[in-house]
Amino acid sequence: MQAFAYQNPTSVADAVRAGSAGGAKFVAGGQSLLAAMKLGLSAPDALVDLGQVSGLRGITVAGGTVTIGAMTTHAEVAASKEIRQAIPALAHLASEIGDRQVRNRGTIGGSLANNDPAADYPAAVLGLGATIQTDQRTIAADDFFKGLYETALRDGEMITAVKFPVPDKAGYEKFKQPASRFATVGVFVSKGAGGVRVAVTGAKACVFRAEALEAKLKASWDAASCQGATLSPTDMTTDLHGSGEYRAALIPVLAGRAVAAS
């Protein structure tokens, strides 16, 4: 691992100032970035540790919206009584991320900024039509995820919170890789004021909405509505865990299970 500078700011303003320097990267829980650095896949000139920045952690539920601070850990989301009551599917998703170490160190903001193609949180954010708050602006979920490890975040822009609308119904199911617990395929479904949404992770280079399934569930919110749905495997991932065709076949199955659990 190469040498790098280390900064430990205590305010959002100081963190943004440090992160705006060329070659600097924010580090939250470090579960993705530090591993990438060890493998030589990332070589920042400076790390800006967000662990001591005030105001980035916590969960509030008000006015039909769940707000989660960017530095809130997966374990905190999974254990939150407020989230379990407002959006049980979100707490369930958080409980399925990695192992205990990952859940106690990893954060929602770090996961979204990294945008791993098999991560769980992107499915929840897109599947619930959430908004990502940064130090500069608010970004809708549909505009945030751009591609493989790519988001709408600008250089030096920092996620501060994520806001989830409370749905009428929601569910999440994934077929996980047994070693990493990343999603070979994961499907988040929801029904609420914003309509029906179905978001899929693990199947392509980036999380995406399955519009064919959305149309079927809009007509009838029932697990049986997902049966017989077909998705093209053309641009789906093929790797040692499964082919594109396999992933395409899994999506409606998992969507049906998520609806049944909602």
Keyword list:
four-stranded antiparallel sheet; 262 residues; alpha+beta; Uridine Diphospho-n-acetylenolpyruvylglucosamine Reductase, domain 2; globular; Uridine Diphospho-n-acetylenolpyruvylglucosamine Reductase, domain 3; 2 domains; five-stranded antiparallel sheet
CATH class annotation of the largest domain? Alpha Beta
User: Count of helices?
Assistant: 11
Strand order of the largest sheet: 4-5-10-6-7
CATH topology name of the largest domain, in short, is Uridine Diphospho-n-acetylenolpyruvylglucosamine Reductase, domain 3
Q: What's the average pLDDT? A: 92
- Beta-strand percentage range: 25-35%
Q: How large is the radius of gyration?
A: 18 Å
* Domain tally: 2
Number of strands: 14
Query: How would you sum up the major sheet?
Result: 5 strands, antiparallel
Helix-and-strand structural type: alpha+beta
Which residue ranges are poorly predicted, with pLDDT under 50 across at least 5 consecutive positions? none
Cα-to-Cα separation, first versus last residue: 45 Å
Helix content: 25-40%
CATH architectural group of the largest domain: 2-Layer Sandwich
Order of helices and strands: EHEHEEEHHHHHHEEHEEEEEEEHH
